[in-house]
Design a protein that fits this description.
It holds the Pfam family DUF2442. By secondary structure, this protein is of the alpha+beta class. Helix content is 36%, strand content 20%.
Amino acid sequence: MAKITAAEIAAARKRGAEEPSIVSARFIRATRTLEVTFGHGVKIAVPVALIQDFSMLERAPTLAELAEVQVSGAGTSLYWPRLDLGLWGAGLLQGIFGTKAWMREVARGMGAIKSPAKAAASRENGRKGGRPRKHPATPAHA
C-alpha cells in the first residue's frame, strides 16, 4: 500500500480550498432551470436543455426527478439519485455544459433564432433587392 506524505495531504487540501464549492442547488420547474449557488457568492442558473448529460438519458427526465438534486462530493458536484447522474460543479461554473461538439451545436442553434424584428428587417432588405453584391477587388497595377 502506498504511503501518503504530509506534503501530499497539504497540497490536496490547498487544491480543494481553491476550487469553489457548491453550497446549494435547486431545480426551478417554471423555467426548467438549474440554479446553483457557490461558496464564494456566485449564483448561476442554467436551463437543463443546455446540459448534454440530460439529453443523453434513455428518456427525458421528469420534473420530479430533476427536482431531486443533491450536493455531493463535499460540494464539488451535483447528483440526481433517481437518474444516477452527476455533474461537476466547476465545469458548470466555467460554462461547460457538455463536449465541445455539443457546445458548438447549442451555439449554432442559438444564432438561428428568428425574432419578429429580424424577419421584418429581412423582408425590408428583400424589397430593396437584398444584400449588395460584393465586387471583386481591382488589381493595383492594371
